[in-house]
Amino acid sequence: IQVVYDPDVEAFIEEIPQGMTAQEARDRVLQGKLCWGFDGKSIHSCYGDLSLEGLSIEEAKEKATVWLEKQGKAKRTTTYKLRDWLFSRQRYWAEPFPILHFEDGTQRALSMEELPLCPPDLQDFKPSGDGQSPLAKVKEWVEIIDPKTGKKAYRETNTMPQWAGSCWYYLRFCDPCNKDKAWNPEAEKYWMPVDLYVGGVEHAVLHLLYARFWHKVFFDCGLVSTKEPFKSLRNQGLVTAKAYKLDRGGYLPEADVVEKEGHFFDKEGHKVKCLVEKMSKSKLNGVSPDEIIEEYGADTLRLYEMFMSPFDKEKLWNNEAISGCRRFLNRIYDLITSDKVVEKASEEALRLGHKLVHDVGQDIESMAFNTAIAKMMEFLNSFSSLPSYPKEILLLLVQVLYPFAPHFAEECHELLGGKTSLAYLPFPEVNSRYLIEEAVTYVVQINGKVRGRLELPQDKAKELVIQECKSLENVQKHLEGHKILKEIFLPKKLLNIVIDA
To answer: Which of 1, 197, 230, 483 is 20 to 30 A from 285, comparing alpha carbons?
Structure first.
């Protein structure tokens, strides 16, 4: 089967060559005159009972693979991108290789009794300029007489890369103060495997793969109790920002770009292409955290980073949007310092507070930080409309805010009379009694069209709900002269009455 892809040029408009319209680009791709490395939908892609019509590249791959497996013509396999690995560096701050070189060209690895091999203390870490490690400059450490053979020997001066430690550091964390071994087996059994691994998507073929490889070797050697080191992996989304690219190549910082009627130019009037790309020094679209902190504070920056988008999705940086998070914190401060703060909490305030704790707690568990912040903002809108602000509920608010804006939350907690640092307090407990909503709103439909809404107690019996919904004036008007064929009832949500035409 030959799969033909209709390129989604509209979704990747910035990738179209300059001077070419979207339609021209699409035509040239389909004619085989323009290479397209981005997504699209398959067309004219059928073979017998296999149709890939309208599928994206990934969807088509999956469907074709399943079909080939059923036909007995292929077998799904996973190919790991393990490659030859240069395991040496020319720097001081790393683990030295425990190898001795002799003048006759032979080598000897140090025995277990001769380990650990510690590097000498150095004041000058700079490379020597001849491609060798800084250790090569320490002759008294490099040139020795081997105590086992009596021969003149030279220590290996290359050092191990960061992978030597980062591929198993999580095991050392199980037993960090053990001076006799890397970890005690009982400590490893207690702590392992790691509950959550957070890293960029590039880790899948780098650190994650290598760490798993080391761990499986340890398992085969009987040194660890688990086959896999990590229970769960979550990839954070890239932070992107607008980048301004010159036609002649290279990038401009935003400060050197002028916008006119939706188009961008450099200061000499040359047109500049505005792209959304990963923040990087080379693209001159990075943002200095120090400048943001200086203007808005560290907690505002933290809050904005978590509010930008879902944890695992790409995030587009927008300097103007940061002020919204600052206003949110200012509103909380205004409530806490208001003369409307009282001791006793009303039922409505308790319902708002405990629902907030419940919802934010669930969002933190699922790493939905952006929706947790959104729910705090929604809470603030409802809470600020109350006639008074109970201290008990304000304390709940600053406790759930603490993981997101710790410095600000600590200050607010102290203003409310808190004596213990929030760092030492558990996450607040939810009283489920306050999660039960007293009333729900039913949508009343006739043949699928909304004819009314009715607020009723949430525990009202089905028969009584239907009876009261039918008694609505507008509903009665549309039922008059018609026969009821069916009643579709969704508890606490909807009543749809099906009538003859």
So the answer is: 197
